[in-house]
Amino acid sequence: MIFYEQLKFDAQGLIPAIIQEAKTGRVLMMAWMNRASLEKTIETGKTHFWSRSRQKFWMKGESSGHTQAVKDIAFDCDGDTLLIQVEQIGAACHEGYQSCFFRSVECNGATLKVTEPQLATPEDIYGKK
Amino acid sequence: MIFYEQLKFDAQGLIPAIIQEAKTGRVLMMAWMNRASLEKTIETGKTHFWSRSRQKFWMKGESSGHTQAVKDIAFDCDGDTLLIQVEQIGAACHEGYQSCFFRSVECNGATLKVTEPQLATPEDIYGKK
Lengths: 129, 129
Known about the structure:
2 copies of one chain form a homodimer.
Chain A: E1 15-21, E2 27-33, H1 35-44, E3 48-51, E4 56-59, E5 68-75, E6 82-88, E7 103-105, E8 112-114, H2 122-126
Parallel strand pairs in A: 1-6
Antiparallel strand pairs in A: 1-2, 3-4, 5-6, 7-8
């Protein structure tokens, strides 16, 4: 069975990729891939994405050095979502948190709290702008 | 800080929700929510979604009985993805697997393998059609 034929890219040619830290099971981020970025990810063993806001192909860590080494690529029953296990170098989130999911909703659904420590500031990672 | 104001729903009014099993850290599925299904999820403590293919509001487990009890709702730095921790009753996948991500790519990127056991067939879950 050919892998790419099992996948459904959306009208923009994109598929969401959930990035999970292989060692801890923590979900680090979700980003979008087109076929070229998925091919590059498989070819190089480092995650590559497509930025919808910047309309740009990018490698995770290209400016921060916080790359992701790919350990496994799975996809779901509908073939429209990827789940990629990685070894994360540094913090995954551009805001300096290990995971982009660093805020949770309080139980009443109306407020939120920061649930994990900030490891570095964006300035630490990218330099002052 | 008001939770809903932190979220970015897309042009169709939808936001992707990653569903993770709280106990094991396993990613079970990814599905889409609109604001109404998110509000219903928070109100009832059971996951509700919006089906893009059926254009229909649905509760996970409404036909299979395989509901998801919500333990935590987090969202990412961009506010455009949810990560929901659940306790899963039965199998999450409509194909009878615990997780919808039951297939992985072999290392050459061209083939795939089933990586986990099928717990039940769809007929077991939904009855013969």
